[in-house]
Amino acid sequence: xxxxxxEDDADLNRQLKQALEESGYVVDTASDGEEGHFLGDTEPxxxxxxxxxxxxxxxxxxxxRWREDGRVMPVLILTARDRWxxxxxxxxxxxxxxxxxxxxxEEILARVRALIRRAAGHASSELRxxxxxxxxxxxxxxxxGVTLKLTSHEFRLLSYxxxxxxxxxxxxxxxxxxxxxxxxxxxxxxxxFVGRLRKKIGHDLxxxxxxxxxxxxxxxxxxxxxxx
Length: 228
What we know:
This protein is an alpha/beta fold. It has 2 domains: about 1-120, 3-Layer(aba) Sandwich (Rossmann fold); about 125-225, Orthogonal Bundle (Arc Repressor Mutant, subunit A), CATH 1.10.10.10. About 45% of the residues lie in helices and about 20% in strands. It has helices at about 10-20, 35-40, 60-70, 85-95, 105-120, 150-165, 170-180, 190-200, 220-225, and strands spanning about 1-5, 25-30, 45-50, 75-80, 95-100, 125-130, 130-135, 140-145, 145, 205-210, 215. Strands 2-1-3-4-5 form a 5-stranded parallel sheet, with helices on both faces. A 4-stranded antiparallel sheet has the order 6-7-8-9, with helices on one face. The protein has a two-stranded antiparallel sheet with strand order 10-11. Helix 1 links the parallel strand 1 and strand 2 (about 25-30). Helix 2 (about 35-40) packs parallel to helix 3 (about 60-70), helix 3 (about 60-70) runs parallel beside helix 4 and helix 6 (about 150-165) crosses helix 8 (about 190-200). The mean pLDDT is about 90.
């Protein structure tokens, strides 16, 4: 999962980036509205943390332009505690949630998890596919009661696939959501990670859709539909 943080306070920007990365996300950052708008307009993000009081272009204008251009990624806005009008303006501009400053980093993490989950149509932080359970809050994956040992990249890939289970996800899409903007992306590495995951979770949960990409499905539900 890939997050964009747009915050002009250098210390807070750094704290948010570190906390999100420690929670398993890939994080890009911007320190002003123009840079933030450009990144959100040209890169695919699963969620954006957007401060309202930004130089160059304020956060409300950034958000309005994204929505006018059809950008639908979840956006969490950060507002000053005494500016209730910011909350109203942000929601009206297309924000999905807001947090008032000062805040606890844990609250940001919880709201980001919830926004990503809801955007994919999930109600719980525990996502299931057949014998596999992925707890996105604890960054843990379990198959048939056994906790898996996964690298950070393997967990990111698994998390993205299970968030979008039953959907065909291309190698390019996976690559774009696994690495930040500065990474030298190579979609061939996705095949390597998929191969490793299959050995750990079972080969039948991740289906290769020839010429299109991958799809995570519960083989038991496919069999049930086939026999219906």
